[in-house]
Write a structure and sequence with these properties.
The complex is a heterodimer of chains A (about 140) and B (about 300).
Chain A: H1 3-10, E1 13-18, H2 24-31, E2 45-46, E3 55-59, H3 67-76, E4 82-86, H4 88-92, H5 108-111, E5 116-118, H6 125-137
Parallel strand pairs in A: 1-2, 1-3, 3-4, 4-5
Chain B: H1 2-11, H2 16-37, H3 47-56, H4 68-94, H5 103-124, H6 128-158, H7 165-175, H8 182-198, H9 224-248, H10 258-278, H11 285-308
Classes of the chains: A alpha/beta (about 140), B mainly alpha (about 300).
C-alpha cells in the first residue's frame, strides 16, 4: 500500500451534506464527535468546505431540487474521495420511494457513485463507525 | 561552499524540515490537549503528518475566475516567510556572530508574511466568502501589529537600543531575562495576546471562522496548496512562541541540560495558547479591533514608558 493511501486512511475529512433529511441522521453524526464516540481518534474531522473534504457524507433522500446540487458538490470534491450514504433515505429512499418529489428510479447511487451504505433510521453511531471501518478496509 | 551551508541551514536544520516537524508535533499537542479538555481521546501523534501527506496526494482544483498565479503563489509566500524567520531566530541563537544589525526588524516584517499570504489567497480565489475572510484578516493585522511592535520596543530599550537579536540576547544573558522586570512582563503579556491573533486561533480566528465563513480565505483551496497553508500554520505555532522566547525569555539554549529549560519555556507558552483557545468564544472583528487598539495598546504604552524609566 502506498504512503498516499495510508495517509488518506488515517485522516478522513468529512463534508456533511444534508439533502432534505429529517435531521435524525444529522444528530447521530454529531454524536460521533462527542466524548463517547470521538471519531477524532481516527483522524476524522468535519470540515466546512467541500474542497477540503475526502468524504462526502449524504443524509436524506435526493429529491428533484437537491439532485443538481449533489452532482455539483461531487464534482467539486478533490479526488480521491469517497461518498457515504447514511440512513435508509439516502441508501434506498425508504418510504419516500414513490412520492412526487423524487425522480423515479434515481436514488443517490444513480446520481453519483456511492462507496458505502449505512442503513438505519437513523443508524446508531456505532453502525456509522462500523461503516467507515468497512470503507477503509476496502 | 558557503552557499551550500546556507542552503542546508535554510532547508534542513533550523529551517524548513526542523520547524515543520516540531510545528506538526505542536499542532498535535494542541489537538490532543483540546480533546482531553473536552474529555475525548484525541488523535494519535502522527495526525499532523498524515494530514499533510494526504493533502499532498490529492487533486488541486482551480476555482473558475480565480487569478491563477496569485492563487498558487500565495501559500508559498507564507511558507517562505515563516521558514526564514525560524532560520534567523535559530541561527542567531546558536551562533551570535551570524546575527546582523536590524534582524529583529526583518523578523517582524517576515512574521507578517503568512497573514499577507492569507489575504492574497482570499482575494485571488474569486469567492465572496473568501473575500470577507480576507478583509477581516486585513483588519486583524492592522489591529494586532500596533501593540505587538510596541511590545517588541520594550526589550530593545532594555538592551540600550540594540536592534539585533544577538544584542537583545546578550543583554538578557547579562542582566536576566526581559520578562523578569515589570515592563518586560507587561510587554510579554501583550505579546502573548498578539501571538494568539497572529496564529489565528480562537478568540481571534475571525478570518477563518469555521462556523460562519467555513475556512475563510482558504475555502477554495484543495490538495497541495491547502497542505502548504496547514503546514505554515503549524510552523507558526512553533516559530511565534520561539520569537517571544528569544525576545522576552532569554532565548533558547542548545547545549547540555539547558535544552530542557528551553523546552519547558516553549511548552509553557504552548499550554497558555491552548488554554486561551479552549476557554474563549470568538470575538467579532470590531470587538477585536477595539480590544487591541484600546486596552492592549494601552498596556504596551505603559510597558514602554516603564522601560524608559528603567523599571
Amino acid at each position: 500500500m502506498s504512503l498516499k493511501v495510508k495517509a488518506l486512511k488515517k485522516s478522513l475529512w468529512v463534508f456533511h451534506l444534508s439533502t432534505a433529511s429529517c435531521n435524525n441522521c444529522d444528530i447521530e453524526i454529531l454524536d460521533l464527535l462527542t466524548p463517547r464516540h470521538d471519531v477524532e481518534r481516527f483522524g476524522i474531522v468535519l470540515v466546512g468546505s467541500i474542497k477540503h473534504a475526502d468524504v462526502l457524507l449524504v443524509t436524506g433522500i435526493v429529491n428533484k431540487k437537491c439532485k443538481p446540487i449533489v452532482k455539483k458538490l461531487y464534482d467539486q470534491m478533490p479526488k480521491p474521495g469517497f461518498v457515504v450514504a447514511v440512513g435508509t433515505c439516502s441508501a434506498g429512499r425508504g418510504m419516500f420511494e414513490n412520492t412526487y418529489m423524487v425522480d423515479e428510479h434515481e436514488p443517490l447511487d444513480k446520481v453519483i457513485p456511492v462507496d458505502a451504505y449505512i442503513p438505519g433510521c437513523p443508524p446508531k453511531p456505532e453502525a456509522i463507525i462500523d461503516g467507515i471501518v468497512k470503507l477503509l478496509k476496502k | 561552499m558557503k552557499f551550500f551551508v546556507y542552503m542546508m541551514e535554510f532547508i534542513i536544520f533550523p529551517g524548513f524540515l526542523f520547524t515543520a516537524t516540531v510545528g506538526l508535533l505542536a499542532s498535535w499537542v494542541d489537538r490532543k490537549v483540546t480533546a482531553r479538555i473536552q474529555y475525548r481521546m484525541g488523535p494519535p501523534w502522527y495526525q499532523g503528518f498524515a494530514d499533510i501527506v494526504k493533502l499532498l496526494g490529492k487533486e488541486t482544483l482551480l476555482p473558475s475566475g480565480a487569478s491563477k498565479h496569485f492563487f498558487l503563489f500565495a501559500p508559498l509566500l507564507g511558507l517562505a516567510g515563516v521558514t526564514l524567520v525560524s532560520s534567523f531566530l535559530w541561527i542567531a541563537n546558536i551562533d551570535g556572530n551570524k546575527s546582523f544589525v536590524g534582524d529583529i526588524v526583518v523578523a517582524l516584517y517576515l512574521l507578517t508574511l503568512p497573514a499577507i499570504s492569507l489575504i492574497l489567497a482570499g482575494f485571488a480565489s474569486n469567492n465572496p466568502v473568501a473575500s470577507i475572510g480576507s478583509s477581516r484578516e486585513i483588519k486583524l493585522v492592522l489591529s494586532y501589529e500596533l501593540p505587538f511592535i510596541l511590545a517588541i520596543v520594550v526589550p530593545i530599550i532594555k538592551s540600550g537600543g540594540s536592534i539585533s537579536i544577538n544584542g537583545i540576547l546578550s543583554n538578557q544573558a547579562a542582566n536576566g531575562m526581559t520578562a523578569s522586570s515589570l515592563s518586560g512582563f507587561i510587554a510579554l503579556l501583550v505579546g502573548i495576546l498578539c501571538m494568539q491573533a497572529k496564529l489565528g486561533l480562537v478568540p481571534f480566528d475571525i478570518s477563518e471562522a469555521e462556523t460562519e465563513l467555513t475556512g475563510g480565505p482558504i475555502i477554495d483551496y484543495s490538495g497541495a496548496p491547502l497542505a502548504v497553508f496547514k503546514l505554515t500554520k503549524a510552523m507558526l505555532l512553533f516559530t511565534v512562541p520561539v520569537f517571544l522566547i528569544v525576545v522576552f525569555m532569554g532565548g533558547i539554549a542548545v547545549s547540555g541540560i539547558s535544552i530542557l529549560w528551553s523546552t519547558l519555556k516553549y511548552v509553557m507558552l504552548l499550554v497558555i495558547i491552548i488554554l486561551i483557545r479552549n476557554t474563549n468564544p470568538r470575538l467579532r472583528i470590531d470587538q477585536a479591533l477595539r480590544f487591541f487598539w484600546g486596552p492592549v495598546t494601552g498596556l504596551a504604552v505603559v510597558a514602554v514608558v516603564l522601560a524608559l524609566f528603567g523599571l
